[in-house]
Amino acid sequence: MTETERALVIARGPGATEVVGGLPLAARAVLALRAAGIEEIAVLAGAERRRLEVSLARRGAVVRWVSEPGDLWAELGSAPVLVVPGDHLVDATSVRCAPRCAPARLPALVDDLAAGRGVGEALRRAGTEPRPRSGDGLFLPLDAAHPPRRLEAALMDTLARHTATGDSYMAAVVDRRLSRPVTRRLLAWPRVSPSRITLLGIALGLLGAAGLASTGYGTRLVAVLCLVASIVLDCVDGEIARARFEQSAAGARLDVVGDYLVNLSVFVGLGIGLARQGLPGSGLWAAVALVGGVGAAMLATHVFFVRPALLRGGDLHWQGDTQSLRGAPLTQVIEKVASRDYTYLLLLLAVVGHLEWFLYAAAVGSWLFVGGLVLYRLAWRARQGVAPGGPLAGLDEVRAVSGPHRATPAPTGQDA
């Protein structure tokens, strides 16, 4: 039987409570350990405990608080214990590179640290090399070369790489460049939760959709700018959730439902506005076809990609595997095409005052997208050697993984 992995976070000194990315560094170390699959975590802390308890309690993290050797586990076991300095910025990828202490030496290590010895000296006295092993991820000390602002920048860069492959074309070029400065400012405001940002983004999106139902040039232009702001906030909520370890299944569902609601409302509002402006009979039919095509495209995308990602990966940015369509070669391209990048085309057409140019092309394009998506799904299933079972056969892929939702370790849950 495999022995349970354990870790000790050294949260002594002011660096442990230094806030980076909305969390004290020592609390971030605990959450990174949990995200890496290590559940038995002890935290050596003195006066720092009170501040850390608040952050950990909000995220449901249970730890063993240690102030002396007698507070350690009754049975230390035989597996080495990870020792993570609480004044370092770490993530779920790098935390396993932390120094490892033999269980028999752990009480002496805690005794030395409680007596005020430095982490490096205490580790050496315990027969452990203080330097972390080489590996990927973040393992940066809080020091003169790495002040809090630089650590936060490194954190944001690392989280950005997590979403880079799944970002749409305009998200990579425009949206993320607008969202990250907003995210960094909002991280310092703990009351601004990812879900609140999601709701604000949905509200702005619905406001923009309502504005498209008007006929005035200025109103339409402001409406599309509201849609752009909604897209930016759709990035911000996920960035904050990952930075603060606040991902949740409920947040992911809210994000998805909000996207669908705003998308459909935009095309309904556009159709109403163009109809009020005065469309020929063919234009009215095109508006109806556009709304129907968008609805069908959202249904197909949800069944084939989004729902399996939430159930199997817990994250909208799950990369998929060989048994899922999410891992197929063209999936990233399809998801980029199905994004809200069309908003920037609407912005251009709103500026020149010809939103009707979008109507006919989008009406045809939405149904071509749905047809291509269904054919792609059938072709993929044929290559997998599975009987097609109908154009919405993606449901069986979802049923095969029935079970409770789980939040994704950081770096969506609440995600975009």
Unreliable residue stretches:
387-413
Quick one: how many beta strands? Answer: 9
CATH superfamily of the largest domain: CDP-alcohol phosphotransferase transmembrane (TM) domain
Q: How many separate domains? A: 2
Q: Please state how the strands of the largest beta sheet are arranged side by side.
A: 5-4-1-6-8
How many whole angstroms does the radius of gyration measure? 25 Å
Main CATH class of the largest domain: Mainly Alpha
- Please name the CATH topology of the largest domain: Four Helix Bundle (Hemerythrin (Met), subunit A)
The averaged pLDDT comes out at 85
Largest sheet: 5 strands, mixed
In short:
This protein is of the alpha/beta class and 416 residues long.
Descriptive account of the structure:
The chain has helices at 25-35, 49-58, 106-114, 119-125, 148-164, 169-186, 194-212, 217-243, 249-278, 281-313, 331-337, 342-352, 356-383, 394-399; strands at 6-11, 19-20, 23-24, 40-45, 64-66, 81-85, 88-90, 100-101, 139-141. The protein is elongated and about 85 Å long. The chain folds into two domains: 6-146, no CATH class; 161-399, Four Helix Bundle (Hemerythrin (Met), subunit A), CATH 1.20.120. The chain is an alpha/beta fold and 416 residues long. The strands form three sheets. A five-stranded mixed beta sheet has the order 5-4-1-6-8, sandwiched between helices. The model is unreliable at 387-413 (pLDDT under 50). It is built from 14 helices and nine strands. Strand 2 (19-20) and strand 3 (23-24) form a beta hairpin. Helix 5 runs antiparallel to helix 6.
